[in-house]
Amino acid sequence: MFKYLDRPMIPKPCYRLCRVSSAVFLCLLAVFGAAAAQQVRLPFLNLQPFEGNPILRPRGTTWEAAAACNPAAVVKDTTVYLFYHAKDRSGAGRWNGTSRIGLATSVDGLHFVREPEPVITPTYDFETPGGCADPAVVAIDGVYYLTYNAFDGVHRRVALASSRDLRQWIKHGLLFPEAGETSHGVIVPQQSNGRYLMYFSDGKNVRLAYSENLLVWQAEAEPVMLPRDGKFDAYAVAPAFSPLISGSELVLFYNGLDQARRSHPGQVVFALQHPGQILQRSERPYLSLAARPENAPAIMLSGLVRFKDEYFLYYGMNEETAGVAVSRELAAATRAQK
Prior knowledge:
Layout: H1 12-38, E1 47-49, E2 67-76, E3 79-87, E4 99-106, E5 113-114, E6 131-140, E7 143-151, E8 156-163, E9 170-174, E10 183-187, E11 196-201, E12 206-211, E13 218-219, E14 236-239, E15 244-246, E16 249-257, E17 263-271, E18 278-281, H2 287-290, E19 299-307, E20 310-317, E21 321-327, H3 328-336
Antiparallel strand pairs: 1-21, 2-3, 3-4, 4-5, 6-7, 7-8, 8-9, 10-11, 11-12, 12-13, 14-16, 15-16, 16-17, 17-18, 19-20, 20-21
């Protein structure tokens, strides 16, 4: 009784068109389904503070007496290298001490051995008297590029150094000398549309810069991310470390300041091929570190590595010490070893 609804009732050309259209639709559905499956969901990475924090503290009476914090991180061979912001007690006024960049290494990502002397010290006028602070490091084609905040006591500006062995560094000077206040530059380790990318702060907003050779950079005129009224990042936003690349998306961890100037970690997703386009952004602070009492340390994210199949997220606390967050499984295993 259903023969009148069967296929012969449809003209052959029309039927073929329907079959083709259905096939095209299914292909598009598969493509969009695969793209949707690759989309990053925020919050990205479920990590929690290590019970043994802080992993770095101020020590001695000289170059790291006041602070050992905000460590950048990179893995080479079987070792984690931390480049941390160290500060002495020589300062007065706004700059409050000269900063240098120290080096600490670890074979487990949790317990570090520190070098006796800093690896980067202030040598130029634009680094004096404030020094070299808040590093970020990335490896590209066998070369390590380290950006840092050069502070002359009045302005912070992004500067660059490079190395092939993580110990001997060549300084390349200020990246945006005419731009006024800049800080917290982070380089994307993969090209987009034939150029390298850097996200950085202008003191309030996140901006974008491009380079052909990783040494000379051209900044875009307009910001790509601004503070948001009424949220945890209402006063200022600044990148934390190099974005993670997930398919066609860039996951940037950042530090947001609220109106009370208290730091809160956040995440934002940009399109790799359109790096000024925001796809997602945290509506609340990064959950793994934000659930803390008000008297707990203010946290500033500064480094992330994947090491021995685990993620290690490094951060500064109260601009004085350094901590790390790890997966729940690693945290449980560490507790069991005690």
